[in-house]
Amino acid sequence: MAGPSRLAPPPWLTAGLRPEPAPVPWAAVARASIALAAPLAVGFALDEPVSAALVSMGALSGVIGDTADAYRMRFYNIAVPQLFGALGVTLGSLVYGRGWLAVAVLTLVALVSGMISSIGSVASVSGLVLLLNAVVGAGLPLPAPWWKAPVLLGLGGAVVLALTLLGWPLRGGVPERTAVAGTYRAVAALFDAAGSDAYDARRRAVTTSLDRSYDLVLARRTRRHGRTPALVRLLAQLNAVIPLVEAAPAAHLAAGRLHRPVPPEIPTAVRDLAAAVEEGRTGAPALRLPEAARPSERAVDQALRYAATVVHHAEPDPYNVDDRLGRPAVLRVRVRRTARAVMMSEPSWRYGLRLALCIGLAQALVSLITVPRSYWVALTVTFVMKPDFGSVFSRAVLRAFGTAAGLVVAALLLAEVPRGWWDVPVMLVLGALIPAFSAKGYAFQTAAITPVILLLSDLLNKQGFGLVLPRLYDSLLGCAIALIAGYLLWPESWHARIGDRLADAVADTAHYVARAFGPETDGGQAVRVRARRALYRDLSAVRSEFQRALTEPPPTGALAAAWWPLVVAVERIVDATTAARVRVDHGAPPPDPSEVVPVERQLSELADGLRSSAVLVGVRAELLGDDEGVLAPLRQEVRAARAIASPHAEKA
User: If pLDDT is split at 50, 70 and 90, which confidence band does 652 have?
Assistant: First the structure.
């Protein structure tokens, strides 16, 4: 039995080959199918297959960028990248066949693309499309005059945008309202799990849902958002769920201590509030809640009654709604701040230089050496090197597998399906597969996109089946460049920075403990709420970074696996701190400062240790205090965190 297990590939290598259990986005499937196939039908009818292929290529960029839920964000996600794409293809076409000049221009474009990718989701997609179109323009002979290709590519993006926004007049605001209702339902599920082992997973689901809802709702902010009643009401309803989220840890600890679940009336009432948010109901709330005796029960009762009042209130005071992030500055100020942040950001420069190096090497190779369909090498590097899409190493491996699978499909189509009108039904099917497979993982997305690009490239170059093997060689060459120049040659690839991120989160947790039980200041509760929200958001980012690191080869993957229990422990410490604060707010005796200081000191020492060592060593934390006091669960969680040791420490 030991032989097969030794021969099996390691989990970090095969993790991305398992499809994610994601539902099929049927609306996106229909949009992609029509947006990619309709231009081909029109082009064949007008005997303009080359122009049709360029329009479909532009539509492909729009399909890849259509990832948001809210209509306003979907508009930006599709429209803004098209402008960058037009600039990219123009720059690329101007240096087509120009040797070292093409290398220099694409390297500079790659630097800019990499640096702006750190700004946000729209900038990330814009940077991707900028570089992709520049590579295509520099690698393919595009029709004259110079402005024709940008216009046709932009027209394809406009087709996707028009199909996407068809429902805006009827469904404007529905995605945001659905997201807020989903957050209430996630909180209901959290109360259902109080006192059980499922609580941690449900709490993470609440954090994810809350972050997503704030992102969607606050994306609609304007400087005069207080005069938009629907937005004000939705923001007030979202803010009202925060006290419920804060009361949940206290309910969880009480349920575990008393060995009985939260009364079912609580989650039922929260689900009723979710339905009221989704349906836009108003009127007097009808709550049937059990009697609240203990501090944790009073916290839940008060938070639920407050949320019910806000949810059912038709017109909240527009100037008394806290947006949690502050009202946005004017556009020119935000642009100036963003530009300064990007230029001063070490990670931004580091990624930009890595991407520029890889693109420069790829373009130098194909510009100076005859490589059939050479632009595909740089395209492969671009997709593999996207930092917010996952590990460079795993993406290179998955790209190779996905491309091979896509080439099998493309080879069958190029060999058996005649070019011409048959391409329209074929593209209807292949276009539909892109959003369906993208939800399953990167390898599956690559397998879906590859035959689409190959068929469109064939319309431009008429190479037929001869495209298949060169494309495979180019993909493997691009993956090799990304692995060597973008991964192996950079020290952070082998000396993971995940410890620094986790150390920062632990240090922030120590500050949160001190703030939660320190002297009261002006706006003390609001400050604590913001600190807790920021901390959970950071912990969510740390968790995502660790999950990505788990797909890296040793030593990064092994280090992430060894430290993973500490990520969970820190999340529980934050929960225990919040639970203690909530109990104090609702009648429990406050802790003595002499109990708070040692907890804060232990967490600070843990943060310092994470920054100075790659090996976790168990520490016996001496934390004394009242075993019946509000800080008893917090001390227990801190002891557990300090006792965590890596496998190396256990062998020592």
Answer: very low
